[in-house]
Amino acid sequence: MKHLHPLMLAGTGSDVGKSVIATALCRIFLQDGYRPAPFKAQNMALNSYATPEGLEIGRAQAVQSEACGIPCSADMNPLLLKPNSDHTSQVVLLGKPIGNRSAFDFWKTHSESAPSTTEPDFRQEVCAAYDRLASKFNPIVMEGAGSIAEINLRDHDLVNLPMARHAKADVILVGDIDRGGVFASVYGSIMLQTPADRQLIKGIIINKFRGDMRLFDEGRQMLEDLCGIPVLGVVPYFKDIYIEEEDSVSLEHKRRQLAEGKVNIAVVLLRHISNFTDFDTLERDPRVNLFYTNNTRDIEQADIIVIPGTKSTLDDLMELRRNGCAQAIQRAHRDGKLVLGICGGFQMLGQTVSDPDGIEGSVMSLPGLGLLPIHTTMTQQKKTEQVTFNFRGHTCQGYEIHQGVSDAAEAVVETDHCIGTYIHGFLDNPPVIEYLLTSHVSPHTSHVSPPTSHLAFKEEQYDRLADHVRRHIDMAQLYKILQHD
After folding, report:
1. Cis bond before residue 308 (omega within 30° of 0)
2. CA–CA gap between residue 210 and residue 310 (Å, rounded)
3. Which candidate among 8, 265, 377, 478 keeps its CA 20 to 30 Å from the CA of 313?
4. Which regions of the chain are under pLDDT 50?
């Protein structure tokens, strides 16, 4: 196969669909005989994943590596920021946490004009990670972050045009027509670049189009005339293709209420919820109505209550007590409802959660909900690994990403009507799902077949996404761009 230039999907803003388009192109290049790999220099997300080596990366790059048909690695997302609050984040470098930083301090220390002498050289680290990846794969499908037009942050930028310059990548700008203002956002994003960076942008993709595509023919030509570069495609909005999402913005579109005739599973809506992809398999099970809520009445009426993972266990536990959800969960458990806790939710279900070193903040200790016989102590060391575990005679798989140690001997701790585990992906295993639903399937849904296996489903969705994007992007023109001398 002819060597292709690296490709960067940059955006006019956040949530314009860069990750999904990148995932589609990863699968298309694989289908066309190439050996692609994803790369995002810096990511900010709570929804992360453990590599086979036990290192932590953003979920989007793990998804994209699956679309490429290769194992994920820390080089695919060398810098991950996991927000602790509005002002601070845990910094994960090459898969390992190196401490918390305020947003101001983080941006200040990796300025191109004034790099820190005490911090790691983040720019050097992400460039080295890219170089290692590029030596093994072709093409590299790069993803930018947020908007490329934040000119006040240009000197600090590690992930957008400076990274494209290092990689000598061809940049394709993705604009979201669904939110409106696509002409201004695309044109402005290009015109606000330096003349040198403007030359890197080789094409435009308009994403999330609704309605009759022919109505945008004139607009497409207008954009090409204004910007002087081709519009490679207009990709329609879709609802029937399911790709795991990383951004908590997607939670705003999740179901929020009970439904008749199905097993109602209430996921308790935490302020610092993480790894909400744990529930994707259950969400598409036709027997289940999975919804997110902090309404105490709905929690008590649900068949199963799930406390999900969180970046701040003690803060969220305190909030559950304040808003009455903790008491509602305890009442539901007394009434025989099944309660499941995953990761931080597992910690909350125990007797106590202690933080003597102030790792999460100023709260040193809180009583848990008292439904499991465990005590948890927060520790500096973070556990990140893929795991195989036994559940009622079945071999299952998942991964762990957590701080804190609980005095539990088993991977899955059970008492009457209560289950707790540190394992993300716990609910992707059919034996687990069937056990949970066995005593809760209503007569109206017992005849409904469970969904296909989690892995088979994901593979099918990557192929469907690739077909969708291939139909609406001029791949011949894109290949011509990526092959030019």
Report:
1. no
2. 35
3. 265
4. none
Whether 343 is catalytic is yes
Q: Report yes or no: 28 and 139 within 8 Å, Cβ to Cβ.
A: no
87 is catalytic: no
Buried b / exposed e over 144-178, threshold 16 CB at 10 Å, is bbbbbbeeeebebbbbbbbbbebbebbbbbbbbbe
Residue 353 contacts residue 317 (beta carbons within 8 Å):
yes
* Rounded-to-integer distance, Cα 330 and Cα 7, Å: 51
The residues facing 150 across adjacent strands are none
Considering the entire predicted model, what is its pTM? 0.83
DSSP 18-39: HHHHHHHHHHHHHHTT-B-EEE
Question: Tens digit of pLDDT for each residue in 29-58?
Answer: 999 999 999 999 999 888 889 999 999 999
Report how far residue 335's alpha carbon sits from residue 331's, in angstroms, rounded to the nearest whole number. Answer: 6
Beta strands in 352-485 (DSSP E): 352-354, 365-367, 375-391, 394-406, 412-415, 418-421
Q: Which has the closest alpha carbon to 10: 27, 22, 25?
A: 22
CA–CA separation, 423 vs 44, rounded Å? 22
- Rounded CA gap, 468 and 266, in Å? 33
- Distance in angstroms (rounded) separating the CA atoms of residues 257 and 292: 8
Residue 81 neighbours by CB under 8 Å, 6+ apart: 42, 43, 44, 45, 89, 90, 91, 92, 106
Calculate ∠ Cα 249-254-255, nearest 5°: 155
Task: Render pLDDT for 194-203 as a digit per residue (tens, 0 to 9).
Answer: 999 999 999 9
Structure tokens, 53:
């080596």
- Residue 315's SS3 state is helix
Catalytic: which of 68, 325, 343, 396?
343
The two three-digit tokens of residue 392, written as one number? 């009622």
- The residue from 156, 402, 424, 454 that is catalytic is 424
